[in-house]
Amino acid sequence: HKTESTSWNHPFYLKIMEELDEYRDIRYAAYRTAFKIRHIQKRLKLHHVKLKAMKEMFDCHGYPESCDTVIGCEELQELLTSVYQTADQAANVTIQQAEVFAQLLQNLVLNLFDVDRTGCLRVCSVKQVLIILTSARLADKYRSLYHELAEPSTYISSKNLTAFLQDLSQLPDLLQEGAIFGGDVTATVNSCINMADSSVGISEDQFYSWLLKEPQTLVWIPTFHRLAASETVKHESKCNICKTYPIVGFRYRCLQCFNFDMCQQCFYMGCTKKKHKLKHPIQEYCLSTTTKVDTKAFLKTLRNNISKKHRQKSRQKYLPVVAESHLFSHTAGMRREPPAPDIHETLTQQIQQLSEAEAQFKGQSSANALSQQRHLEKIIEQLKEENRRLQEKIMTMKESSDTESNVSGGSRPLSGVSPGDTPRHYKTLLSSKLANSNQPLSPIVPVQSPDPDTPHSRGPQYDSLDFLEVSPSHFTLPSLTNSRECLDEEEAMDALVNKMQLIFPSNMSYSVYSLPKCGVEQDEMLQAASTIGSAMTDFVSEAIMPHNKQSLGY
């Protein structure tokens, strides 16, 4: 906020990196790199995380040994948080602190392997760095590195070894030590391949032997472990330069000067006193020494002073892989830093992505709506077709039912009525018949339809009441449709019912008179309608009901 700038780095991460400046005065690159890595390890609480627990968490998240997949930032954040939750109880890491430490460690990993901030990292690269930074013995770390690099044939290929060295060289390069331990790793790979006896690859024993020789590109790894082991060690000796007693940490003894000890601070700064010079051979002690070890060192010092032939010269304790002139051709500022994020450009890109996503969503929504509409239209058409078929089926059934109900058998004419009688004569005869209602009406016997080829088929046609042009509505004659359910399905009963429907329609009403030419008064017509109603009631009770009871077996 004060500088009005935007950075990819976490503020706490920047503070940790600034604290590394206190080690810039160390004269030797291996120790300077080791001190910086140790400082990062302690600030990120990784010295409380066991190597075994870290590997188990990777296995639980689906990243076993030799896994060469890609992991995203969100999943990496979750994975690192779970790793911190397995820390020792001495660290006293809470859930909130675990999330913060995971963010800082993720920031470090992204600066190592994802400078352009693509959001994707190789799992094997992350795991190799965590193997170096977690707490374990050096031999266990070497063994874990072999299992990460080895192929199913149990050999390490030159390709995997090159990728491994390039990944590990990013750490000292980030700490501005790339001039010594960064750059091209081809010479280091060749030094390991030259030790191999097989052309297939590098075996496990050859890999361990090569690492124990401390190749120059990786010499900071064993130095880092010796530094961690000697932090709390106290030596019963006094520094001959700064007079510090006891010496804590590394203790350095000159093998040219008698009884000349130095603390690690004086050694790192290149301090000298009296006859001691920087080119004298030096013996390093990271643990407390015994009398036997001190006696052996004294004998070496005596031999160096008495005989020039056996004088021990200062020798390299690591495996050189490149020339000294080639090493210092690099500069500390070679590493590319993460680009400064442009807020306006970032917002523009996000807005463009949102608009594209919205347009894509609208297109998908319209396509889905159109598809649903077509589906509904198809369903509606199917329902219409089904409805049309049902309507046709109903009409067919109705026509069949009407055809069956209209089949006519024989009919019996009323006595005294001839085909040539007029309607008035018919009405007078009907009234006289109904006047004698005390006499029971003879039941109508169904007559079968005569064969048209027989002589009986040319008999007289029977009359009906249809030509009376009378529509009674004050009452309705009893319908015989309900009675048919109780009758047997026989031909005689069907003929009887059809005959009754033809003679006495069920929709006859007497509210409207359509006899303008008959000259009959209204009172007379009402009386005739009442008489017809009584006659029909008697007819149903005396003619149809006995037949119904006989059919039902009463």
TrEMBL record:
The keyword Calcium applies. One of its GO terms (molecular function) is zinc ion binding. It is a peripheral membrane protein. SMART domains: ZnF_ZZ (SM00291). It is found in: Cell membrane, Sarcolemma; Cytoplasm, Cytoskeleton. CDD domains: EFh_DMD_DYTN_DTN, ZZ_dystrophin. GO terms for cellular component: cytoplasm; plasma membrane; synapse. Its main location: membrane. PROSITE patterns: ZF_ZZ_1 (PS01357), ZF_ZZ_2 (PS50135). Keywords: Calcium, Cytoplasm, Cytoskeleton, Metal-binding, Zinc, Zinc-finger. Residues 429-441 have a biased composition (Polar residues). Pfam families: EF-hand_2 (PF09068), EF-hand_3 (PF09069), ZZ (PF00569). Residues 234-290 form the ZZ-type domain. Residues 397-461 are annotated as: Disordered. InterPro entries: EF-hand-dom_pair (IPR011992), EF-hand_dom_typ1 (IPR015153), EF-hand_dom_typ2 (IPR015154), KCMF1/Dystrophin (IPR050774), Znf_ZZ (IPR000433), Znf_ZZ_sf (IPR043145). PANTHER family: DYSTROPHIN-1, E3 UBIQUITIN-PROTEIN LIGASE KCMF1. The keyword Heme does not apply. GO terms for biological process: synaptic signaling. The lineage of its organism: Eukaryota, Metazoa, Spiralia, Lophotrochozoa, Mollusca. It comes from the Eukaryota. This is ZZ-type domain-containing protein.
